[in-house]
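FIELD: query
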Amino acid sequence: MIGNLWHCAAIGVVSLALSLLLTPLARGLMRRIGAIDLPDPRRVNRVPVPRGGGVAVVAAFFGALAVARWLWPDLLATSAFTPILPWFVPAALLLVAVGFVDDRFGVPPILKLAAQILAAAVLCWGGARLTLPAAWGEWATAPWLYVPLTLCWYIGVVNAFNLIDGLDGLSSGLAILATIGMAGTFLFVNPAALPVASVAFVGALLGFLRYNYNPASVFLGDSGSLFVGLTLATLALVSRRGDAFLVSIGIPILCLGVPLIDTCLAILRRTLRYVLRRLDASAGDGEAGASGAVMTADRDHMHHRVLAFTHGNQRRAVWVLYALAALLMLIGWVTLGLREAKASVFLIGFGVFAAVIVRAMTNVELWDAGSLLARPGARCGRRSIAVIVYVVGDLFAMAALYLALLWLLWGWLPHFAPHRFVNFFLAYTVPVALALVAVRAYTRIWGRSTRKDSFMVVAAVAGGSLVSHLVLAYWVPELARQMVRLHVLWAALLPVPLLLLRLAKTAFLQWLAFAENARLRRRSLADPTIPRILFYGAGVNLRAYITLYEINVTRNHVALIGVLDDNPGLRGRIFRDLPILGPLEDLEANPDLLARLRPTRLLVTTPAIPPERLADIRAFCQRHGISLFRCSITQTPLPLD
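FIELD: result
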């Protein structure tokens, strides 16, 4: 065993040495044939850099495996990667060839996708398959399921590393971390086996990273990034354990978390922008839809955002992403080490990471989603579509709550036949559904809802539940007495999911408006064209203004910073996320606060203000160079002829 460890380490050293020797040769070859990454607004390199250096990684990896087969055939024979090697070689060479042509001449995205599908199909035929645990039933290992799953897995991972290859050393470094994470998992579940292919792959990537780290003298290119993605996807499949779903696919997903999440965000972001451009084109802007395609590149990838966060420092941005990848890998290992509550640790860890990603999405993907939702046509929507969504959502919420209460109170179903279970479910839901129709819950505009609208839903649930219980008590009084607890919980809890369904869009737009205002406040400190608005008067006009701000969330160009009000009891309170700063005199007496706020516009929203008070406000604005405006709701008669 010790001898095999040394032999495995030697393979890694051989791969590292080959990569260190071959990468400069590949760099010179790419420079001679003209495979150069020229600077442009989308790229981060400021000087021409040869691309396609990934062919050195390919040569070093296969060269190290050839040395292993020549010197220690028994070592390679025990590797889980060896049975798939005859299928992996042609699949990898196909992608490397397509990537090489793309690095030099350019290849349409559809042809690259076709090559990826073909390579994935070859490996799936050869045995590298993404199958669900056999304990789940025969359907889990059926070809109709594992073939599309395998193709999606390969295409997802390959494109993940192709898309994230945007900073010096990023793709190769993340691939090293992912390989180490999956190799560590493989050793944990099968200590007797040695991940020879993983060690060779890490060595090849380390040697290339020597030249790819910032400032990079060579890039992976598509020939390298496609091969890296294919190799990682294959290593995850051949070293998996079919009897443990978390080990077989959960840990590899964590190890590949950063590029996979970036790919998912790119698909979401580009789809939203494509839809927005198509809508703009249909509205009359003919050129808007012509240039927008789902596969169009942009500068909103995760590494671009982290680069902006680090003020253009590539090394710092790369290490931030390395740290995120290492954190996900450690979460996977901790999950693996804790035999109990694996799923909970996995979900908690991934949930924390997802929260970070969602926070980063605020100004990009969620912003585009808000742009789509905030369009006039999207806000109103077609009534038929809204009714269908509400009806289906209500039925789903009722069924889920009913089953959850049965499980919590009785372990599962009470002691009656399935047809009686369905009858009782209908007895619970039909009166509530009819009550919701009676209070017009399906025709109200919930984007403009008030407390009365929410109260009507609660009343409908209470009334419908009371009717159902009275009917149940009349026909089967004994069973009605047994189900009193369920009925009370049903009536108390059901309004929550029903109201959440109706208010989700409004709440999302309000949250988006808050996030956008925070972004504009930051930008306005350096951009004098963005007004910083201070309000005077926390009344109905201010509420109307902020409501309009939320409706036009994606079209605002002003930053709201606070509210002044003469009522001393309101000082320190919050008005729709805006702090109430107190009277005008208090602000002028606090020069530090005034310097921190830096208002450029004061908007008077108080309907009736005494002339002497208005004179004080004018004098304050003159002293501090603030422009003065009035905002009010007025009625103007229009002539009939």
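FIELD: remark
Confidence is low (pLDDT under 50) at residues 285-292, 377-382.
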